[in-house]
Amino acid sequence: MIKYLGSKRRLVPVLDALCVASGATTALDLFTGTTRVAQAFKQRGLTVTAVDSARYAHLFAECYVAIDAGEVDADDLADALAHLDGLPGEEGYVAEVFCRRARFFRPENGARIDAIRNALEKDFTTSPLYPILLTSLIEAADRVDSTTGQQMAYLKAWAPRAARDLELRAPKLLLGAGTALHGDAVELVRDGSLGSFDLAYLDPPYNRHRYTANYHVWETLVAWDAPEHYGVACKRTEVRDEPTSVFNRKREMPAALAEVVAGVDAEVVVLSYNDESWLDRDELEDLCRERKSGGRTDVRVLAFEQDRYVGARIGIHGPDGSKVGAVSHTRNREYVVLAGERARVARMASAVEGDRSR
Q1: How far apart are alpha carbons 155 and 33 in whole angstroms?
Q2: 308 and 261 fall within a common domain
Q3: How far apart are the first and last CA of the chain?
Q4: Nearest-angstrom CA–CA distance, 319 and 122
Q5: pTM of the full structure
Q6: Strand 26-29 with 47-52, pairing
Q7: Number of domains in the chain
Q8: How far apart are CA 214 and CA 301, in angstroms?
Q9: pLDDT tens by residue, 307-330
């Protein structure tokens, strides 16, 4: 999995325990990101639908959620990876924009990314291996980048990992099929096209920063459209010019989240959020109580202390790499809100060691 701001890596064991205790057989991951949570649910044998509006997240969902490992020819995949990994580098968009104008990768790795991505577009777009191979390329690029884990900026000095050679590896695919959807959460819930689920997991954006800006390099590798760019980080101009998601707008976000929580067709909703965001714990509870029906629904809140993302821990720096601010705190609190039938919610909360609900 790639380095990712907002990753639920540390929370996955909790969400996994909640999933098992819920007794669910179908699940929705509505803001899937890297698909960590969707993968955990799929590993438990659930039929999972993973949704996101970002191109790269939809690609990961195609690879890890929609594809059944049992239907992939391992020899064909190994041959394709070996062929792509052996291609000589060729100067292209990545080498020019993300290596010389910006410094996300060393030029030799950027040229190899260009060669592999061009070959994917030329030879594999109609192949069922395409999402797997492109995922492999993005994960390989992530292992040799020079960032703190997001692409709003790059490090002043090269990260040690940037000196490594780009290496393609086979993604760890999972047995069982699922569904990958590319779209806006509010629109999909509003038009009722998602279907119904036993469990819905919601992990909405927490602030004004768009994930497509934080990971614009991955967006470009998926789109492969040689976009116009701006700024020191060479972000896609659509990041600057197109309207932001309602979830990145402080005044509109609460109503949008309330609509999604109330409208998603699921027996139990699991919502994760943290205490650095726009809604506090009481507001999250009140929002989830709107799902209440006939006195049968309960809302419980679990809270977990965790380290902040690495970029917040190393300090605040200006465009020239100089330190311009101090770190205010290195820990935050993650909330997991459960909303559903009373007995089921109680069973799920009790399954988490120490039962941190109130």
Answers
A1: 23
A2: yes
A3: 33
A4: 37
A5: 0.90
A6: parallel
A7: 2
A8: 29
A9: 645 444 445 545 445 555 555 444
